[in-house]
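Issue 218. Parser rejects a valid record. Input:
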Amino acid sequence: MNRFDTESLLLNSKSARKLYVDYAAEMPIFDYHNHLSPRDIADNRQFKNLAEIWLEGDHYKWRALRWLGVDEKWITGDAPDKEKFMAWAKQVPRMAGNPLYHWTHLELARYFGIHERLTEDNAEDVWNRCNEQLQEGSMRAAGILEKFKVKVACTTDDPADDLQDHADIRRNKDIGTVVAPAFRPDRVLDLTNAGFAGYVRDLGKAAGAPVESYQDLMEALKKRIDYFHDSGCRLSDHGFGAFPYEAATEKEASDIYLKALDGETVTVEEERKYRTFTLLALGRLYRAKDWAMQLHIGAIRNNNARMFAKLGKDSGYDSILDFHLASALNAFLSELDRTNELPRTIVYSLYPAQYDLIATTIGNFQSSEMEGKLQLGSAWWFHDQKEGMLQQLKSLSTIGLISTFVGMLTDSRSFMSFPRHEYFRRILCRLFGEWIKEGDLPADYDYIGGIIQDICYRNAERYFKIRQ
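Output the parser choked on:
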């Protein structure tokens, strides 16, 4: 039999199935962190073929194909799109046990109504059937958002971006999804990058302000935050390897900034001081705007020097960084909390051994302002799969309170990724179903189902305060 049963996928008890079908399945989506192109949404992009929408930019799939020895020609190379898809389809049966196997079949089922297992034998037929459907309006970029009931989608945007794409989206009354920018100032913190001086000057031009001094830089960032706020932004995002914390004065940060502008060598300690002081200053600005702050911690990037030189960043050569976090994270949150300037904060770790650590840390800084002010972020990147999600959910529930969790996100560049919300919801219902089966929770489905619906959508709606 060549059919793949996506209806009972991951639902291993009657309680899990009831929770999913009756409470989770029909909830809308609040996708508060993704890397979708706002230009694609503004243009309501029509994808030419299945390879373009499904394989383009997807480093999860690229890594799997490399693992299976597929030549780069059929991954990121110059092979025709159809050949790339055929190479992918041939290898899917070898991915049993990897989340890509589940995602592949969920995506075929939910986007195209195809419930067959993808193999080399049916690849030609699947290619033709999917390409035919891609010509329909419901499969254009904005149509996909509507199809999956995405009420809010937050993209990832550089502070120097003019946000014109977002303005075009807001003016288009045919786009029902609220598409909001998120402020991602990583390049401001990366002062050892060779392009740092040129970047901050571009930032100054966008802000209409000079950036010759550190005070100028902070004024430019404040102006860009104001601009993003007026464009609907209500959250920021930051990406780190090891999380920095090295106490510094404003004069120290200023001197280090000027060294970097002049092209002088900045020491590791100086870099930590600049990043710490600047991140604290940004946190205070976020608090003043009532924004949420996301901290994505623990990626070590671009590890294959040969392939980085060939393909550049975000091409599938990143991995998990192991490092100590507790002292730095507690010190950072405490410094902002000390003056009541700690914004709503979500802490993600790519190193799952830190889930318990983060859960205990954020418990130190919860507030009567709102429930779940600080969040243990969803299982991220390499861990947005069954075991990773269960580990994160169990840490959150045993050390914190899972009922306040703001739930899942796609963290993806692909318009084919929205079934990841379904995948998460099935795992969430599986966990609660096991608790009911084992007698840890009562079989009161309206009570438990209400918590499920909060996690699927309502908590995020309350937490991010994005006008719909």
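Fixed in the parser; the record now loads. The radius of gyration is 23 Å.
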